[in-house]
Structure prediction request, 153 residues.
Amino acid sequence: MRRTVSFLVLYSAFVSSTYADTANVIFNGTVAATCTMGVVTNGTMTVSTNLQSLSSHNAGGSAGSVVVNTTGSVSLSVDPVTVTTVPATDVTPITWSPTYSAAGAHTISETPLPTALSVPGTSTVTVHVAGTKTGNNRFAQGNYQATVTVRCE
Prediction:
């Protein structure tokens, strides 16, 4: 009978230890450098008193704005203006100059140049555009439109 009891105690210890086990489940994830944007407001250009500047910086003009959300490790920039609408009566050259600044997670003074956004966060980007004429050229009466593309990549 002693043998039977010893066997039961040994068997019991063996059985209970086989039911106690653990396993680690590992989860991996990767967050790629991303940037999302949304237009908050479109801007307004007004003409200068000498009719040689059509700009969001002129009196009565207003900037456009975009909200940028990023993981960081991206670059923010504005493309050269390529899409414009001008009245048929305006036949002299216009030089378009877009600029931007940012406030929030990223502080950027007004610039036309690309800027690295190294940290994650949300910022409001203020966008301006100016069209200029030189020499004796002046803006003609009519409706003008310039499209500024804000790029985050």
